[in-house]
Write a structure and sequence with these properties.
This protein has three helices and no strands. It is mostly helical. The radius of gyration is 33 Å and the shape is rod-shaped.
Length: about 100
């Protein structure tokens, strides 16, 4: 082996060691940031799930939730009489055929 190939192989090994140390330090820093913000991230995820499944019009504060709201009355009316209107529309459309 010549001095040139020996120095090139030494450089390759040196670069691999330096890059591994860099990778380890980046992973450690990223993990430390995640651990530091873990509580905030958990709260954000929980709040986003609540917002996703929460309907604004269906809930009222505690003393008022015993009294039916206007929105719940409209939903009940549509539930009771909306199906009958749909059936009537379907019935008249079949009669025209």
């Amino acid at each position: 082996m010549t001095a040139r190939s020996l120095s090139l192989s030494f450089l390759q090994i040196f670069v691999i060691i330096i890059m591994l140390n860099l990778l380890i330090s980046l992973m450690t820093t990223t993990f430390a940031k995640i651990q530091r913000n873990a509580d905030v991230e958990w709260k954000f995820t929980r709040a986003s799930l609540w917002i996703h499944y929460y309907e604004d019009l269906n809930s009222l504060p505690v003393p008022f939730n015993l009294i039916p709201s206007v929105h719940s009355g409209i939903k009940a009316y549509n539930w009771l009489f909306g199906a009958q209107e749909d059936n009537a529309k379907n019935w008249t459309s079949t009669m025209l055929l």
